[in-house]
Write a structure and sequence with these properties.
By secondary structure, this protein is an alpha+beta fold. Among the domains are: about 100 residues, 3-Layer(aba) Sandwich (Rossmann fold); about 70 residues, Dna Ligase, domain 1 (2-Layer Sandwich); about 130 residues, ATP-grasp fold, B domain (D-amino Acid Aminotransferase, Chain A, domain 1), CATH 3.30.470.20. The protein has 18 helices and 23 strands. A hairpin with a 5-residue loop joins strand 16 and strand 17. Helix 4 runs antiparallel to helix 5 and helix 13 runs antiparallel to helix 14. The N and C termini lie far apart (about 50 Å). Bound molecules: ligand MV4. Ligand MV4 binds next to strand 9, strand 11, strand 13 and strand 14.
Amino acid sequence: MRTTKLLIANRGEIAVRVMRACRELNIRTVAVYSEADAHALHVREADEAVCLGPPPPRESYLRADKIIEAARATGAQAIHPGYGFLAENADFADAVRAAGLVFVGPSGDSIRAMGSKTGARALMEQAGVPVVPGAQEKGTKKDEQEWMEAARAIGYPVLVKASGGGGGRGMRVVHDPAGLPEALASARREAAGAFGDDTVFLEKYLERAKHIEFQVLGDSHGNVVHLFERECSIQRRHQKLIEESPSPLLEAHPDLRARMAQAAVAAARAVNYQNAGTVEFIVDPESLAFYFLEMNTRLQVEHPVTEAVTGLDLVHLQLRVAAGEPLPFTQSEISVRGHAIECRIVAEDPAQNFLPQSGPVLLAREPHGPGVRVDSGYSTGDEVPPHYDSLLAKVIAHAPTRAEAIARLDAALARYIWLGVTTNVEFLRAALAHPEFVSGSMTTRFIEQHFATWRPGAETPPDLALAAVALADFLSISASPAWGVMPERADAGPWARLDGFRLGGITESVERDR
Ligand code: MV4
């Protein structure tokens, strides 16, 4: 049953990215939007658009009823949830199917099984997938003494996690017994408020670890394959910043990769997984022990690095398997070519403790070139609303080797101009240049160890220089933002003499590139 019209229940770069796949497949698209997004890129990219309501997500992008009604009203036969919002809401997946529509994702039961982190841990143990040493309540509630005893047996530091959480939400690190009662109590309070479920559990906290996840894909014919791994150790406040494939650690340990891949497929099979999903592991780089953390039952932000190295289009594949078609390949036909790294461009101010930013995008000038992909939710003239997450765009570089991918990504970031909204571009460049990142040995402590006090420095081009580059670009004059910041090239461009800047002088000092 082929889809001819798809509703995308999301906004920003992921909605735009799903629509691109639809154009390639000759599928018409329906956008949904909030009043804050009436003129947004994802609305302009769609064939049709339906307004859901006021800006707050609860009144728009989380309104399952209005989204299903919009699909019915426009004749869309399927709904793609993107990530975030309703993507991992099992009741939404069920409601979409109950309305006779295709949900481009796994079954409600798969989502539910993995949505309970304590339930998932128990299931994984049964399936022979290693889980982090820990403790949880089985039937009977534990009192404080029992939790204290469990934590002592696990060994400090321990993590208190919320069963309804995931992605680091509601997590608390506890270094000694004195801190445990308060961590348990506050985690429970937060979980009750945020997830309506105050179930918590303990895990041994692996302090210097590698966060490695496997992309999996299942169809409705019982086939499950993996598309190899992504390493995502570089996160701040549990937001990933840099992701790559393959993992430098697993490149050195192919046997470990094989065991983790097998565990990922076993995890997916244990919940009869269909569609695209990700199995997250934490790996101790010393002992090479690996443990299941959670499974994300959606397409992830960082899926393009997997697409780059496998040459596959995950959204095409999602649509195929959602339509009941079998996977068009077997495991042995999937291989990895080269290396891909993604950086997330986020609207936040590194000088103000990474405070999220909103407002008008006066200019967005994207880098391009061989092996460079940009997935953006915004273009020049758009408004970044304050109501949603602050991801603006992603830059993905693909090259034969990791070193070349880093160089390619840095060169692309150096040419990415955002005016009007402060971004983390210079922060990302500093992270890519750090010797620990370059060596591939970075762990989950990378940001806190090396960038806790990072502030934008002289390497950040001033807005005036960027504006001048933009003007030069408009006039078809070749110009680089680097001219505003590189002392050794102070005579190479006009930005070095901003005080005496005259438009008429530009043609003498800057090469024309017509
Ligand atoms: C962990 C962990 C270490 N030990 N669990 C963060 C996101 C969520 N999916 C799981 N996360 C982690 N869980 C145990 N038992 C390390 C992380 C983690 C992390 C922690 C602090 C700072 C950066 C991090 C990056 C990736 C994973």
